[in-house]
Amino acid sequence: MATNFNDDIFFATITELNAKIRAKEFSVVELTKAFCDRLEKIGPTYNALALSLRKEALSKAKDVDGDLKRERTRGPLQGIPFGVKDLLAVKGHPTTWGAKPFAAQKFDENARVVDKLEKVGAILIGKLSMVELAGGGGYRYPSASLTGPGLNPWDRTRWSGGSSSGSGSATAAGLVTFAIGSETSGSILTPSAFCGVTGLRPTYGLVSRYGAMALSWTLDKIGPMCRSVEDCAIVLQAIAGSDPDDPGSAGKGFAFSPRYLRKPSELTIGYAPVDFEEYADESARADLKNALTAVKGLGAKMVEVEIPDFPYGALTGTIIGAEAASIFEDVLRDGRIDQLADKRQIAGLKSYLSISAVDYLRAMRVRSLVQAEFRKLLHDVDVLLAPSRLAPASKIRDRLDNPAQRTPPKSRGLSGLVPAGNLAGLPGVSMPCGFADKMPVGIQLVGRPFYESQLIAVGVAFQKATDWHRRRPPVG
Amino acid sequence: MKITRRKLATVLAAVPAAGALAVTSAEAQERAEADEETTHARETLRNNLAQIAKVKVDRAVEPAFRFKA
Known about the structure:
Radius of gyration of chain B: 28 Å
Shape of chain A: globular
Order of helices and strands of chain B: H
Helix content of chain B: over 70%
Number of helices of chain B: 1
Oligomer: heterodimer
């Protein structure tokens, strides 16, 4: 049976695609082949593809077709094609971490999230590009990657965001139904916002990082990038859970029960008008304000809040720096670090070797204060709402350290919520909410540790009321 | 145009010198960029530590070790 796959299939959600698979509209082998063709053909045009896994994917697809024939169902991810950021190990294949010094690196077992997804029948079709070493040294240009700059499917002259660049652009362009990314400080939420997809950063410790590149032991998280909040919840359910092989594992799982999601009207959402009216780039204000209005329309109790006063950027910089210097000490000392593409990244990583134990411990003690203040803030507020990024994706050739100089507003609002949320280990969701200069913009929801279900409740309701997550870039 | 052997020898002799000049110039530019980035990285680190130093931390506050969200 030859099936003609159209864009509705490539841009379908997990639930929609799973319904078609179970209705036997096409086989999983046919679907996998169509997605592999598309990923291999279009992926390189966005510098999104690190490695195609066609052969293994088709073999697994055949097994899944066999299971379905015998009515062995394994849940909503059975037969769904996905990709993973190239910092996750896939047995016997190169895992480059997006960096030249590791271009030939191979591992002899899969990352835990890969095993978990394959166990429920999802089909891994490729590894997706990333910023070299997840950008831990700070980088000046989007070209800081072994595969070149991540290009945005909405406009190839713009950046896809980092460091989960390929995960963002491949999901946005319908090259995979979902992707796995990672976040140390913004690497899921940023490409999700820039590419117009929905990304979920889980609570620290909820998803095992076994088999993932370590950049910062106390900040790294693995999470899904999908077409909707509901899809993120489905994937999170599959990848969350205790893992004795991950020292940071919290020993908790996550169950997605749509029926038992709380109603937004039962929740309190904290926000700061100044984020939408002054901090946001002028081009993004109209749609961000409309999104705020749409969230208010969900019936939640809205209260104005302000982020606790801490130097969040300095804290993440110091903590990532000290931990990354220890993790990559060998390549820093033997000179292989000089093979990286971005000179700022090289210099940044080298400079981290001079962070003293006292400096690091001071940052970690201040981090304890950050956590305590966020516990207080989230005592009376269930969810925090803010723009994911204040402006749309920049041009590929623009420097990333050259933001427009403006007089900062008098109130802090919730500015710095991305590093702050990461420091406190809080879960976050970024959802598309409109456009600025024809590029996607998004809003983020942040909640208490292990309360992903409340973010999902608000996110699902928002996406029922809007259709921004359904917009497709002009691909192909 | 008639090219004499002397002119040809002069041109050929100049080629490697020009090449070497270009390489030297590119190397110098690269070195200058690297120096600029090193200075930037050190300043960033210093600024970060200075900002963190301004936060008052009670002696009893322990670092967020055995980090749990």
